[in-house]
C-alpha cells in the first residue's frame, strides 16, 4: 500500500518536471535550428524520441548510483557534445531577450554584428576554460 | 478574360531546369482559361548556381501581358514566391548528420535534467518526502526514484503527444508547430532581404 503510493507520487512528480524541462527546450528554438543546419526536417519524430529517452536516462542515472566504465576518448566526445548543447542553450537564451539587436540599434553599429558574435564566442570559450583550470 | 493564380507550395526544381512556366509556379483558375496561359515562361533560370531565387509578382504580370495582352491577372496571395533549386543527387551524409543531432539532443536532455536536479538538490528533497511518507530516508528510495524517472519520460512524451495518448495523427506536436513557424520566418526573411 505504502509502496504503491510512493510509486504513484514519484510518477506524478516526474510528469510535471519532465513537461517543464521540455517546454523550456521547445521554447528556445534549438531543435528547429538544428533541423535547419542539418537539413533534416523529416526526422523530427526521431528527435522527439531522443529527448524522451535522454530525459529518462539522465534522471535515472543521476539519482541512482549507476555508473559505467568509459575511457578517456569517450569523455572527450561526450564533453564536446555537452558543450555544443549548452552553447546553443545559452545563445538561445541570450537571443530570446534580444540583446544583440538592441545593442545594434542603441550603438548604431548595423553590419558589425559578426564581430560582436566572434568576440562573444571567444569570450565564452576562454571564460569556460579559465573557470575550469585557474579558478577551480 | 480573367485568371486567378494561387501559388503552389514547396517549390523545388532541379538546377538544370531552363525555364519556369506559369503552371509550375501557380494553380490556375478558372480551368477553362488554363490552356491559354499555362505555358507562358515566367522566369529564365538558365544554368543557375544559386540555391534559391525570388520570383516577383510584378514580373509575372508583365510576362503574362507580353504574351497575352487581354488577360487580367488576379493573385490569391500577395507574397513574392521563393523558389528553391537543388541537385537531385543522393545525400549520403544525411545519416551522419541525423546521428549527430540525435546524440546532442539525447545527452543534452539528460544533462539538462541532471543540472536541474543539482540546482534544487533533488536527492535531498526526495529523501525528505520519503521520510515524511514512510519514516525512513533510504528504504524504498529506489522505487520512488525509478517511478520518478519513468514519470519524466512520460511527461516529455505527453508534452509532445507521442506514445501515450497518441494524438499526433489529428494534431501537430508543439515541436512541429515551432519548426513550421521557424521555417516560415526564414522564408519571409529571404524574400524581404533578397539582394541578388
UniProtKB/TrEMBL annotation, chain A:
The keyword Magnesium does not apply. Keywords: Membrane, Transmembrane, Transmembrane helix. The chain crosses the membrane at residues 6-31, 43-64, 70-94, 115-135. Coiled coil: none annotated. It holds the Pfam family SpoVAB. The keyword Signal does not apply. It comes from Tepidibacter hydrothermalis. This is Stage V sporulation protein AB.
Automatic annotation (TrEMBL), chain B:
It holds the Pfam family SporV_AA. InterPro entries: SporV_AA (IPR021997), SporV_AA_N_sf (IPR038548). Residues 2-87 form the Stage V sporulation protein AA domain. It comes from the Bacteria. The chain crosses the membrane at residues 94-114, 141-160. Keywords: Membrane, Transmembrane, Transmembrane helix. Gene3D superfamilies: eubacterium ventriosum atcc domain (2.60.480.10). This is Stage V sporulation protein AA domain-containing protein. The keyword Lipid biosynthesis does not apply.
Amino acid at each position: 500500500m505504502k509502496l504503491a503510493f510512493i510509486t504513484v507520487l514519484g510518477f506524478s512528480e516526474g510528469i510535471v518536471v519532465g513537461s517543464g524541462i521540455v517546454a523550456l527546450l521547445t521554447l528556445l528554438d534549438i531543435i528547429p535550428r538544428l533541423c535547419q543546419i542539418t537539413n533534416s526536417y523529416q526526422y523530427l519524430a526521431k528527435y522527439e524520441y531522443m529527448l524522451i529517452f535522454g530525459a529518462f536516462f539522465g534522471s535515472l542515472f543521476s539519482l541512482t548510483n549507476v555508473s559505467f566504465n568509459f575511457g578517456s576518448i569517450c569523455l572527450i566526445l561526450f564533453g564536446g557534445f555537452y558543450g555544443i548543447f549548452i552553447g546553443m542553450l545559452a545563445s538561445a537564451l541570450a537571443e530570446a531577450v534580444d540583446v544583440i539587436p538592441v545593442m545594434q540599434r542603441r550603438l548604431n553599429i548595423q553590419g558589425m554584428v559578426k564581430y560582436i558574435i566572434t568576440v562573444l564566442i571567444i569570450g565564452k570559450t576562454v571564460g569556460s576554460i579559465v573557470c575550469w583550470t585557474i579558478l577551480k | 478574360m480573367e485568371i486567378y493564380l494561387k501559388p503552389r507550395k514547396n517549390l523545388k526544381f532541379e538546377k538544370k531546369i531552363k525555364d519556369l512556366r506559369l503552371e509550375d509556379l501557380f494553380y490556375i483558375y478558372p480551368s477553362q482559361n488554363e490552356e491559354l496561359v499555362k505555358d507562358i515562361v515566367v522566369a529564365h533560370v538558365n544554368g543557375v548556381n544559386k540555391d534559391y531565387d525570388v520570383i516577383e509578382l510584378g514580373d509575372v504580370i508583365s510576362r503574362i501581358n507580353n504574351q497575352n495582352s487581354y488577360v487580367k491577372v488576379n493573385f490569391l496571395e500577395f507574397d513574392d514566391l521563393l523558389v528553391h533549386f537543388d541537385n537531385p543527387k543522393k545525400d549520403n551524409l544525411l545519416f551522419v548528420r541525423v546521428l549527430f543531432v540525435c546524440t546532442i539532443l539525447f545527452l543534452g536532455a539528460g544533462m539538462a535534467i541532471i543540472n536541474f536536479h543539482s540546482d534544487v538538490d533533488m536527492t535531498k528533497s526526495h529523501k525528505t518526502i520519503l521520510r515524511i511518507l514512510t519514516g525512513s530516508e533510504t528504504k524504498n528510495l529506489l522505487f520512488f526514484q525509478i517511478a520518478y524517472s519513468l514519470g519524466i519520460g512520460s511527461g516529455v512524451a505527453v508534452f509532445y503527444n507521442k506514445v501515450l495518448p497518441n494524438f499526433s495523427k489529428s494534431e501537430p506536436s508543439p515541436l512541429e508547430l515551432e519548426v513550421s513557424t521557424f521555417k516560415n520566418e526564414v522564408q519571409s526573411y529571404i524574400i524581404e532581404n533578397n539582394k541578388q
